[in-house]
Each structure stands twice: as structure tokens, then as C-alpha cells.
Amino acid sequence: MTPALKAKPLPTSVAELFGMTEDWMSGARDAIRRVAEIQYPLNVVGMITPIAAALGTKPCQLLIAPEGSRFITSDDPVVATKAGAVVTPQATESFLLDADLELYLPLQPGICCHWGTGPELRVLQTSPENVDIINQYTRQSAYRQIFSSSLDAHAGVAT
After folding, report:
1. What is the pLDDT along the chain (159 residues), one digit of tens a residue?
2. Which end is more exposed in the chain, N or C (fewer Cβ atoms within 10 Å of the end residue's Cβ)?
């Protein structure tokens, strides 16, 4: 006969489960913050050279918006497309070297940098239709980056 097991109440939080005190939690938050403050810039610096080298292999144009048209600028401005579909950009050399990849970086409402196809190192007046297409790419990319606790929080954002 199996002896009766005494039920042990479940801890009310993960902190209790792992025996984390308030002092320990406070110290952990500070340690995580310090690591992030140091690690993130080091990661960014390490990525600059391979990204610049990969972008240097692609034709680049500065697109000038015509009078009455404006590029959308944002805090997450790089838009990547393949065959006219927005894809999530990756800061890897292999991703950036993909021949089908095009990158758009609106620098200000009247100027957008484009890497991908076309003549190298040119300043080109683009059409209102092209500005609209790039802006639609920007909207689609931004929509993909929205994070929230529920779908209702961004239900009104057009895709």
C-alpha cells in the first residue's frame, strides 16, 4: 500500500518558489540593467562593420519625394522587402547580401535612402506613386512591430 502523500501548498509566486527575497530581486534588477547598458552598445558596435560591408555591395540611391509627397519617418525606420513583400529585417551579413533584398530608410520626409536594385549612388526624383508604395511598406513594417497584451490594443491600426 502506498503511503498517503501530504499535500504541500503551492507558492503564491515564482519568487517564493525559488526563495527569492525582496533584496535579491532588487539586486537582480540592477544587475540586469547594468548588463543591458554595457552589452547592447557592444553588440551594436560589433554589427556595424559587417552591416556596412554588406550594404556596400548593394546599389544605393537617394530618393527625393516630389512636391506634395512625404516619406513616413519613424523610430524603427528600416524597411526590408523581398519581391515586394515586407520582411523582418535581420542584422546579419547573409540576410543583407540576399540579391532579392531591398532596404528603405526614410531619412526625412523628403529623402529616402534605398539599397537594392537600380543605378548605383544616384540621387533620383521619385514619383508620388513610389512614395506611396514605400509608405505602405513602412506602415506594414510598423504594424509587424506592435507589441501589446491584447489584439484589441492595436485593432484600429491599418495593415
Report:
1. 445 555 555 455 656 666 666 666 667 667 777 777 777 666 666 777 778 888 888 888 999 999 999 999 887 778 899 988 988 877 777 888 888 999 999 999 999 999 987 777 788 899 999 999 999 998 888 776 665 555 565 555 554
2. N
Q: Catalogue the long-range contacts made by 85-93 (C-beta closer than 8 Å, 24 or more residues apart).
A: 86/137, 86/140, 86/141, 86/144, 88/144, 91/47, 91/51, 92/50, 93/50, 93/51, 93/53, 93/54
Q: How many domains does the chain have?
A: 1
The whole-model pTM stands at 0.63
Could you tell me if 52 and 91 are in contact, meaning their C-beta atoms sit under 8 angstroms apart? no
- Rounded Cα distance between 143 and 70, Å, is 19
**Residue 4 counted as domain residue:** no
